[in-house]
């Protein structure tokens, strides 16, 4: 998954409202993919836009990631004051646990490298 800068609005990238359902988000993603057609249009701008659309869809289709994103948008961290001395970083309260899909490698199967009859 590609990381987006915090200023980008994922809902605007897909062209949907924040109250959109999962079906509308999927429909908007498919429409954007048809517009960009990465198999036909091969240029750097289209590839970058396709990456943004894909990253936005991957975040908004997962209910847990979407809730965490919505919370981050509603309660952004304040910008640090440049004139003040060093202060402790404010840590936002977590209401949602962000669980990532951890894909493990398949288990290794050990077997004979070479079969020797009678052994």
- Based on secondary structure, the structural category is mainly alpha
Mean pLDDT across residues: 76
**Total helical segments:** 4
Span between N and C termini?
Answer: 50 Å
**What letter string, H or E per element, gives the SSE order?**
HHHH
Main β-sheet description:
none
Low-pLDDT runs of 5+ residues are 1-5
- Strand fraction equals under 5%
The helical percent reads 40-55%
Number of strands: 0
Assembly classification: single chain
Shape: elongated
- Rg, please? 22 Å
Structure write-up:
- The protein has four helices and no strands.
- With 119 residues, the protein is mainly alpha-helical.
- The relative contact order is 0.13.
- The model is unreliable at 1-5 (pLDDT under 50).
Quick structural gist:
By secondary structure, the protein is mainly α.
Using brief descriptors, characterize the structure shown.
single chain, 119 residues, mainly alpha, 4 helices, elongated
List the helices and strands and how they pair.
Blueprint: H1 10-14, H2 22-36, H3 44-61, H4 63-74
Helix pairs in contact: 2-3
């Amino acid at each position: 998954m590609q990381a987006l800068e915090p200023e980008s609005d994922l809902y605007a990238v897909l062209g949907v409202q924040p109250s959109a359902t999962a079906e509308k988000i999927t429909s908007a993603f498919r429409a954007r993919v048809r517009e960009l057609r990465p198999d036909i249009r091969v240029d750097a701008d289209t590839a970058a836009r396709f990456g943004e659309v894909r990253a936005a869809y991957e975040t908004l289709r997962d209910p847990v990631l979407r809730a965490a994103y919505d919370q981050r948008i509603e309660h952004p961290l304040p910008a640090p004051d440049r004139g003040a001395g060093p202060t402790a970083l404010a840590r936002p309260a977590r209401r949602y646990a962000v669980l990532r899909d951890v894909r493990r490698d398949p288990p290794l199967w050990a077997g004979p490298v070479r079969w020797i009859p009678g052994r």
